[in-house]
């Protein structure tokens, strides 16, 4: 074997890692490896026989299933030990970064007294999620408002510290909400807290979905 040339197993792994949907099917064990090997040889132009590629796929599938089992156990532990808090009647205000920076001191004063306040920074804007009764105070500080969403609810999932080093927890929860047709206005992560901002009308159903999966993993 040429020491500078990647092995068939390495090439197959790279090809599968570029195909997330195929990778997930392999993790679930629902792939026809013979058919997949033929596709890879044809589409990726692999310089290998179909049986050799199939064998590499089978071995990779076993590794992925083992990884999935370990990851699922970690996600189950984090989600099962989480709790939910709900804050109704919040507004989402997006403002120009330039204008808000000038009012930071006054904004901090509002933050210290508001029952709910979250601030996130993008490249050109800040987004403030704030208790609706304090919305006017923020609007009085800034001249350029990019957008406002009212009648929102913030669902805060408070998890153990393991969430920081456990991949897949947030996507698990967002997938559960999406599968139930619930739109997420904002997702905010802050240390152990994951905050989902959702339209008020959908909030009760969103709470039920999250509570159900948390209880189901205990």
Automatic annotation (TrEMBL):
Domain of life according to the entry: Archaea
Instruction: List residues of the CASTOR ACT domain.
Output: 151-212
**What is the protein name for this chain?**
CASTOR ACT domain-containing protein
Please list which residues make up the signal peptide.
none
Q: Which InterPro entries match?
A: ACT-like_dom_sf (IPR045865), CASTOR_ACT_dom (IPR027795), DUF7523 (IPR055945), UCP014439_ACT (IPR016619)
Pfam families in the record, alphabetically?
ACT_7, DUF7523
């Amino acid at each position: 074997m040429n020491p500078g040339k990647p092995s068939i197993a390495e090439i197959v792994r790279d090809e599968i890692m570029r195909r997330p949907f195929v990778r997930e099917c392999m993790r679930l064990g629902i792939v026809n490896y013979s058919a997949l090997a033929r596709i890879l040889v044809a589409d990726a132009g692999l310089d290998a026989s179909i049986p050799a590629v199939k064998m590499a796929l089978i071995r990779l599938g076993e590794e992925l299933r083992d990884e999935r089992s370990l990851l699922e156990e970690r996600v189950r532990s984090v989600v099962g030990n989480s709790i939910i808090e709900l804050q109704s009647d919040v507004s989402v205000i997006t403002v120009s970064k330039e204008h808000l920076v000038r009012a930071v001191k006054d904004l901090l004063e509002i933050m210290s007294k508001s029952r709910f306040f979250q601030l996130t920074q993008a490249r050109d804007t800040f987004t403030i999620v704030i208790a609706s009764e304090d919305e006017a105070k923020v609007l009085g500080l800034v001249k350029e408002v990019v957008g406002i969403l009212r009648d929102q609810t913030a669902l805060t999932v408070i998890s153990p510290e393991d969430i920081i080093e456990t991949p897949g927890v947030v996507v698990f929860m967002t997938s559960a909400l999406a599968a139930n047709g619930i739109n997420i206005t904002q997702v905010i992560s802050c240390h152990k807290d994951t905050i989902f901002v959702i339209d008020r009308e959908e909030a009760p159903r969103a709470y039920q979905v999250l509570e159900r999966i948390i209880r189901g993993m205990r």
